[in-house]
């Protein structure tokens, strides 16, 4: 993991102190509310429906045990005992009091953490593949790039007041687990024909009310040119992005309205005009950062663990967990284990302070002191010995964190919705809870296979419904919550946006409709190896349309 | 309107009111006229909207000052204009004109601005002490400053 040097430490400490001063100047009237708002947002502090919400950055989702314990302590001391892992690998607290926030930032600084640029119209916290350094299909670990971008973008004087927020994601693998095509900039590390490492650069993806899949603006950017090229993109966006309408202010709209070719020409012109050699990262600096992400000292282990196999054979519950929540590790004898934060019937992504402490203990003992927050709102233990998976599972059972649903139908992404968010037009969490209750049977979930349900409580799409294999969008229609269902979205490799299945339905009808959609899929699929999204792509939406409407008998039952 | 730089409030040598004054600021559109009528030793500056393309601005040819408009403090186009002007080799004075917060002062200086022209109401509510104190809030930067202050990256390189 990256460790702060004196410079990183100083910046974070000074930013926390600066925020303390900004709060004081708001209270003494030097800053108006209108002036204070962007300043607090740039430090992750939102004013929500009931209270302030503080979003803490977890750069590219990586955490050690000490940091996780601090997150637990903050939940305990300053929140109502909970934290909420977000779709951008961060954590947010829904109940802090304004006067406590500077103290929270000091606590965070003690463990090399902060809330810098987790909100506001600036370059947000950088995200990366949660299996970075683990996956066998990796060209290069994306975290050194993400850390370099984190530093370069931190308090960037030119790009702190952009037209709108700006999100960057990095993947180093062939399979895209970082959803780079739905980010403002997506970076894919790859090799060119000569074997050199560089980036495919995507710009202009995003969700919200006008979703777009990002366009490739450079097929291969040499690795050493990254920061200069990012500056060129950001400058074009800062100067030309729309500021007349915040719903049209993201770079995706600029790319769309300008045209991809013309946008590329502008970026290339900007880049060639000022090649910015001094902005480009010094190779020695890139190496310095990369050294922190060198593979840990793995033990030399056989690829197969007899004790693991025996435990799987002996205990069906463990077998179910192990066959669902493990991801192959490139080091023999190790695995990456997904801890699902989606227990049946509970808000997706929530963790209690106690669970955070338990996760910290487990990671310290069994995962080389490391965890990852995923954009699917789960926690990954990246380096677990196969020999010890059963022990980890036993500890997870004790913590109530053993839900065997990673990647399955109840591993739902949902935004906070009307329960917390002032923008929301409908509830999300209760819909997620009802669906996960409907599909609670883990054996049935396994049978259905890989299926991502994503739920947003308004058109801003924080729940990523556009890229859900099944997407659910909650709207308000004549004072009643109404839910639109989309099918066919995919956030990763071959990213696509879902299409609407038909007219919106009532909240009560959603679990039944999802169940009928799933039954239709089970009837149509060519076999267990054809995932839901593949079936939808093969047969189209038409065969699913009748599923949206409840058959008369069911309606009668529901009314009875 | 009050003018301040990194040392505090200072008198404004330029005026927009008297075309015969020793130092004048004119709208970009009136530049040719001002240059044609330029008195011996007269300094000329231009007012530039933040919708201007920085690379199209007359950075050579004796322009002494460019005042970039900041119509709203949340509109950050001016930061890119300032930075681009410095990268293009402009060496005259760069002025922020309009709405800026003390908390943005350091960003403006890092982007190559020298001074800030703000309205009196703001300076009354956010006195000069706040502006100068804000400059000391964060003393390091990952980014290079156009004034030559080394970035954190450069400082690290120096210790290698």
Entry summary:
By secondary structure, chain A is α+β, with helices and mostly antiparallel strands. Chain A has 18 helices and 21 strands. The mean pLDDT of chain A is 95.
Q: What does the model show?
A:
The complex is a heterodimer of chains A (560) and B (160). Chain A is an alpha+beta fold. Chain A contains 18 helices and 21 strands. Chain A has helices spanning 6-27, 33-41, 65-78, 101-110, 143-153, 226-240, 251-258, 260-273, 283-291, 306-314, 316-325, 353-366, 389-399, 429-438, 442-448, 510-524, 532-539, 552-559, and strands spanning 45-47, 52-56, 62-64, 82-85, 91-93, 127-128, 168-171, 185-191, 197-203, 215-222, 326-328, 334-339, 350-352, 370-373, 379-385, 413-414, 453-456, 470-477, 480-487, 499-500, 505-506. In chain A, the strands form four sheets. In chain A, strands 16, 17, 18, 19, 20 and 21 form a six-stranded mixed β-sheet that branches. In chain A, strands 1-2-5-4-13 form a five-stranded antiparallel β-sheet. Chain A starts with 5 loop residues before the first helix and ends with a helix. In chain A, 54% of the residues are buried. The mean pLDDT of chain A is 95. In chain B, helix 3 (102-110) packs across helix 5 (128-135). Chain B has 160 residues and is of the alpha/beta class. In chain B, strands 2-1-7-6-5-4-3 form a seven-stranded mixed β-sheet. The N and C termini of chain B lie far apart (47 Å). In chain B, 30% of the residues lie in helices and 20% in strands. The mean pLDDT of chain B is 95. The chains are: A alpha+beta (560), B alpha/beta (160). The A-B interface holds A 5, 7-8, 10-11, 14-15, 17-18, 21-22, 25, 29-31, 35, 38-39, 121, 151-152, 154-162, 235, 238-239, 243, 273-274, 276, 278-279, 281-282, 284-285, 288 and B 53-55, 73-77, 79-81, 83-84, 87-88, 101, 103-104, 106-108, 110-111, 125-126, 130, 133, 137-145, 152-153, 155-157, 160.
């Amino acid at each position: 993991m990256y460790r702060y040097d004196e410079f990183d430490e100083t910046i974070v400490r000074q930013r926390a102190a600066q925020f303390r001063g900004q709060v004081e100047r708001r209270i003494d009237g030097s800053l108006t509310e209108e002036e204070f708002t962007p300043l607090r947002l740039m430090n992750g502090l939102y004013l929500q429906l009931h209270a302030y919400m503080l979003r803490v950055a977890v750069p590219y989702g990586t955490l050690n045990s000490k940091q996780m314990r601090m997150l637990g302590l903050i939940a305990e001391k300053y929140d109502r005992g909970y934290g909420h892992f977000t779709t951008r690998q961060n954590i947010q607290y829904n109940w802090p009091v304004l006067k406590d926030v500077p103290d929270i930032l000091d606590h965070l600084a003690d463990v090399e953490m902060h809330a810098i640029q987790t909100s506001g119209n600036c370059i947000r916290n950088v995200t990366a593949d949660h299996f970075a350094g683990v996956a066998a299909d990796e060209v290069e670990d994306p975290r050194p790039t993400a850390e370099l971008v984190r530093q370069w973008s931190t308090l960037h004087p030119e790009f702190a007041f952009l037209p709108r927020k700006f999100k960057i994601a990095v993947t180093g693998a062939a399979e895209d687990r970082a959803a780079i095509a739905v980010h403002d900039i997506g970076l894919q590390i790859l090799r060119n024909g000569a074997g050199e490492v560089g980036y495919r650069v995507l710009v202009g993806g995003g969700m919200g009310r006008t979703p777009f899949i990002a366009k490739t603006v450079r097929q291969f950017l040499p690795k050493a040119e990254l920061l200069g090229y990012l500056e060129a993109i950001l400058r074009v966006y800062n100067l030309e992005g729309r500021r007349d309408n915040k719903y049209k202010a993201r770079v995706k709209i600029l790319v769309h309205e300008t045209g991809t070719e013309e946008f590329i020409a502008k970026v290339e012109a900007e880049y060639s005009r000022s090649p910015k050699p001094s902005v480009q990262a010094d190779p020695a600096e890139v190496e310095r950062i990369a050294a922190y992400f060198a593979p840990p000292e793995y033990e030399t282990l056989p690829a197969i663990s007899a004790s693991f196999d025996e435990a799987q054979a002996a205990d069906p519950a463990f077998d179910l967990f192990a066959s669902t929540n493990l991801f192959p590790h490139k080091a023999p004898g190790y695995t990456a284990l997904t801890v699902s934060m989606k227990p049946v019937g509970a808000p997706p992504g929530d963790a209690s302070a106690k669970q955070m402490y338990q996760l910290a203990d487990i990671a310290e003992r069994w995962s080389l002191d490391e965890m990852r927050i995923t954009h699917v709102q789960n926690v990954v233990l990246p380096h677990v010995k196969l020999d010890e998976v059963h022990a980890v599972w036993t500890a997870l059972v004790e913590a109530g964190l053993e839900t065997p649903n990673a990647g399955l139908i109840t591993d739902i992404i949902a935004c906070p919705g009307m329960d917390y968010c002032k923008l929301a037009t409908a509830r999300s969490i209760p819909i997620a809870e009802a669906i996960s209750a409907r599909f609670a049977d883990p054996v049935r979930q396994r049978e259905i296979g890989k299926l991502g349900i994503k739920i947003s409580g308004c058109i801003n799409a924080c729940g990523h419904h556009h890229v859900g294999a099944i997407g659910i969008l909650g709207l308000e229609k004549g004072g009643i919550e109404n839910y639109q269902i989309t099918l066919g979205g995919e956030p990763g490799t071959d990213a696509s946006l879902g299409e609407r299945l038909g007219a919106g339905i009532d909240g009560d009808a959603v679990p039944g409709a999802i169940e009928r959609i799933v039954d239709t899929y089970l009837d149509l699929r060519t076999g267990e190896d054809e995932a839901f999204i593949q079936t939808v792509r093969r047969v189209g939406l038409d065969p699913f349309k009748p599923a949206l409407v409840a058959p008369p008998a069911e309606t009668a039952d529901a009314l009875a | 309107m009050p003018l301040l730089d990194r040392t505090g409030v200072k008198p404004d040598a330029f005026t927009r009111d008297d075309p015969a004054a020793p130092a004048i600021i004119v709208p970009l559109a009136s530049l040719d006229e001002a240059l044609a009528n330029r008195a011996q030793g007269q300094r000329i500056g231009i007012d530039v909207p933040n919708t201007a393309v920085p690379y199209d601005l007359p950075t050579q040819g004796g322009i002494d000052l460019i005042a970039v408009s900041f119509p709203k403090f949340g509109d950050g186009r001016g930061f890119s204009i300032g930075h681009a002007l410095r990268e293009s080799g402009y060496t005259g004075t760069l002025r922020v004109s309009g709405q800026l917060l003390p908390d943005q002062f350091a960003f403006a200086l890092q982007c190559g601005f020298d001074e800030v022209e703000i309205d009196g109401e703001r300076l009354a509510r956010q006195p000069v002490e706040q502006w100068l104190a804000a400059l000391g809030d964060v003393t390091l930067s990952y980014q290079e400053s156009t004034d030559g202050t080394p970035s954190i990256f450069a400082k690290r390189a120096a210790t290698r």
